[in-house]
Amino acid sequence: MPALTEPRWLDADQQRSWRALLRGSAKLFEDLNHDLERDSGLSLNEYEVLVRLSEADGRTMRMSALAADLVHSRSRLTHTIRRMESDGLVERSTCAMDRRGVNCTMTLAGFARLEAAAPHHVESVRERLVDRITPAQMRELGVIMAVLAEDAGSGESAPDGRDADARSERIAS
After folding, report:
1. How far, in Å, are 5, 29, 40 from residue 136 at the CA level?
2. Smallest Cα–Cα separation from 59: which of 93, 100, 99?
3. Can you list the domains of the chain with their CATH numbers?
4. What are the BP-aspect GO terms (predicted)?
5. What is the distance between the alpha carbons of residues 14 and 31, in angstroms, rounded to a whole number?
6. Which helix (H) or strand (E) holds 47?
7. What is the per-residue pLDDT across 77-110, written as a single tens digit (0 to 9) for each?
8. Whole-number Å distance between alpha carbons of 106 and 3
9. CA-to-CA distance for 95 and 124, rounded, in angstroms?
């Protein structure tokens, strides 16, 4: 990024929107995390790991791919996986194709925990987000977040229905 000579300050409307994003997203994720921990003993980060693994072939992903998919640092993911491994939810193993890589596999106990947590989590997502905004706002939110995720290299497509068949098999995240 080139050096700035003159700051491009946010106008009053942009500042209000930016601050609303910060407050709203922090509150939403705090509430969702609280609900998940209360209902299932899983943190939102742990739940998201289990969701990604449940969608992967053989319920296994390389740790580096999992970190990229979740937009987590490798060290943060390693800490989360270590805790989940001690709880019997996942197992780590050396990647057969590249001995330097590490795979993470969801255990049967991890899948059972995800299945038990998912209905409560989906209800929490509905209560705290989906049912509080209009369907049009929800679609627009998805489009906006897809634009932001593209910059993060997520590879996710916009929520326009193109991947609806693939998503229909997934447990809601």
Report:
1. 39, 22, 31
2. 93
3. 32-117 (1.10.10.10), 129-161 (no CATH)
4. response to stress
5. 25
6. helix 44-55
7. 999 999 999 999 999 999 888 878 899 999 999 9
8. 45
9. 36
